[in-house]
């Protein structure tokens, strides 16, 4: 039988043909084979037969890693991301179900020489961590120290001592920065003055061979920069190095950022249990599995060796359903963050090399309660394990100002499922409780621009009320089917900047009229004004009946006593600080209910009890972890969650964290978001090309939506402009100057181009009113020349200078005797057919969105002199011309089960991978259509010549535009 669980330790070494991997501790009942990842830009992953001998493989020089994250395919090379250090969290109800946190990650380039250097570096770091002084630590002294820290109210990691299982794990992780008053400021806050100064980022970087862990991110080497190098960095007026060298620099930055995402302290995994599902959902799956086995037994088709007695499975909260399947097949994909990176191993059925990783937070703590607190002579106690498990969704993943609200797939930003589990021993009977809460952004289309400390949230003006209701309805349909009836607890301000969004949320929920969705408002800032946090109890009192009706999951001595029937959905604007305070308040109320069901009480005593210390620290750490994942800093208001009170120190710490968040939202988050979209498989490498051009990236959902809008614009233009019986050959959308006879201009727009059997239609389309506002009809017999070639409109960045990906064509025709007609379309000539609500996307900002890529791309040249360059000599036969630049090929990834499809290009352009190929297909189509009239048969009908050359673009770009772009790039990308 093949190994179904991920290998806990994997040996990695080098061979002539590729990187080799095999289990470091093989199962004696298994005959593990070797896996080879070839040296290639697109590596091949294959399993070698167990009896294969590779002479060039030196396993004595192998490096041991703790798991494979996946393969990152970039410009010049691919990288194998491996876990080189882990931090044990504890065991989830069973000893074998150990949870680990990702502590350190390394990227091994899939290039032989660079891979050898990377493995040598990993081995050196591992050896450095194995210091004899740490190996000789007396465990009893550690436990004593931990107990002393516990009594002084430090964090729960200090309370519980976990014996390391390997030499490397003996080096405990540096405690994550907390939000409590015991820590003056988080590491992000301390580093804020340095991060705020862009001049510290001017140091040049060489291409790295081994990119490892947080050390390479937080401690960049200081490099002295000469004045001329600094000028070249600030003013990149010339091409700095080859395309490969520029890609290498960007590639290093992408790998570092990807590693940083996995080493924030928010990534967790387990080799033997599914971390993506709550205990109740696992129990429901176990019942389903039992029914399937019963059916197979009746049909005498149950696989041999499969257990048929499922009674224990039905009531054991730690049972793993479908245990005969590989771990990755059992997890909830919504919370599986490295699925896309793992696909090379998934596609080759290498189950034991696929390690699902969850983003969120897991902590296991314990405390003790007196069995009879009323009797001071009764010293008997009940041990209580307190576990928190937060799972952050990968759907609509990203950072706070980059991802807000809901998307077209009904996923919301920052959706987190938080489960609290307690195990109590009472009269030698084990009782296990579970309670689940969820948080998520307000499920409406809204946005927020992070250029101030508290920017107002605004509803997306391009979305109609019907679209908002539809998205909200689908979102709640998806979540109620999993969690049951919802009690929405909206903590946003009912007045002021947040008032509009808060009012809209309430109105749309009322319009929804769902029996499974209830709504409760609690203006957190208003109610707790003046640090009066004792008023939070009034919210608990208001929801008392909901607590009773929802209940909780409870298994006692193998018997299921109750299940949770509903969930609290808590939100504020960020779903971070206020949300964490309220969810911890709710969890404390439920903890009292669960202990009360066993006849146990939390003793009331002066000061903070052991229960208070453990509970508050667990929830404060949970809030900090989720905040780091979404906002980049520890949570605000964490001092109240950690200590149960607010003070001036906590307010000052919140102020520093707020400034750090402002810096991140204004500068660094833009590139981080592009990396997140890429590593989750939502975008291709073109996202980084787009970022360098626009210094921001487009939401993948927006790209798909704009693709649908373009298709509708083509369909509307066809229905309005083509005469009856006129055959349409092709329809495209292209960038073009607003006016004819111009190739470079301050005003570009996205036009619709229709090619029929009779004419070429150049359409200025109004995406606001969904109508044709102006069109030019060019009869095919009057087209005299087509020029195709490079169409460079910006000389500021390497990607914008690439003639392969910046191509276009120019059509020249005779307009004598009104052979071509330019007409203003009546405002009443619009598409009479109404698209469905889910597809209607027409408001004033849609046109701005459609041309946002254009505006951002050409904003630098718009401040330079407008250039209406002379047409080529080859166009002298025509007295009118129009220039067209094809849209960037930026296919959006659409997730399937384990395949990727693409959208964006029309059917007749399918297969084109570059803008030049698209131009060739378009021009060939025009030539074929013109051949019917004889003009396309001329040998000089198509001329290959630059429409706008790089030199023309450089002359049209002012020094001011270059400086502006350079400063933006310096701040957004760091050089």
Structural account:
With 975 residues, the chain is an alpha+beta fold. Helix content is 35%, strand content 21%. The protein contains 30 helices and 32 strands. The strands form five sheets. Strands 6, 7, 8, 9, 10, 11, 12, 13, 14, 17, 18, 19, 20 and 21 form a 14-stranded mixed β-sheet that branches. A nine-stranded mixed β-sheet has the order 28-25-24-23-22-29-27-26-32. Strand 3 and strand 4 form a beta hairpin. It is globular, with a radius of gyration of 31 Å. The two termini are 53 Å apart.
What topology emerges from the helices and strands here?
Elements: E1 10-14, E2 18-23, E3 34-38, E4 45-48, E5 63-65, E6 68-73, E7 78-91, E8 98-109, H1 112-129, H2 132-135, H3 139-151, H4 156-159, H5 187-190, H6 192-196, E9 211-212, H7 215-218, H8 227-234, H9 243-262, E10 267-270, H10 279-298, H11 311-315, H12 327-330, H13 339-346, E11 358-370, E12 381-392, E13 416-426, E14 429-439, E15 446-447, E16 458-459, H14 465-483, E17 486-490, H15 499-512, E18 517-521, H16 524-527, H17 536-542, H18 544-550, E19 553-556, E20 559-562, E21 567-571, H19 577-597, H20 610-630, H21 638-643, H22 648-679, H23 686-694, H24 700-721, E22 728-737, E23 748-756, E24 759-766, E25 771-779, E26 783-790, H25 798-801, E27 807-813, E28 821-824, H26 844-850, H27 852-862, E29 880-886, E30 892-895, E31 900-903, H28 915-931, E32 942-944, H29 950-955, H30 959-973
Helix pairs in contact: 9-22, 14-15, 19-20, 26-27, 27-30
